[in-house]
Design goal:
Elements lengths: L4 H10 L6 H19 L33 H6 L21
Length: about 100
């Protein structure tokens, strides 16, 4: 399967990309190569081959999500450079735009 110049231009438009004439030609050649690689799969005998779901046989070991109190509020606020009764105080980082 060959990619036409019009198909490259359509894909570029959909992806909101702009290419020069030379870049379109380069993309066309690259896409032809990619489709050639993918087309090689049709030459293989894949009878009985299971689809690959994971890249390895390893599985994530998940733990139960349990709520626990690790540090108290007072301990957390103890080393804060600036604090209120229950909260950390931080410098203002957002500026209000004036009309």
């Amino acid at each position: 399967m060959k990619i036409s110049k019009e198909e490259v231009e359509k894909l570029a438009h959909l992806a909101r990309l702009e290419f020069s004439a030379q870049e379109i030609e380069d993309m066309q050649n690259d896409m032809d190569k990619i489709l050639g690689f993918v087309d090689k799969i049709s030459e293989l005998d894949l009878e009985g081959v299971e689809p690959l779901i994971y890249m390895s046989d390893e599985r994530n070991v998940l733990r139960k999500d349990e709520v626990e109190q690790v540090i108290s509020k007072d301990e957390a606020l103890k080393n804060a450079p600036d604090k209120d009764t229950d909260y950390f105080r931080v410098p203002k980082v957002l500026k209000r735009e004036e009309d």
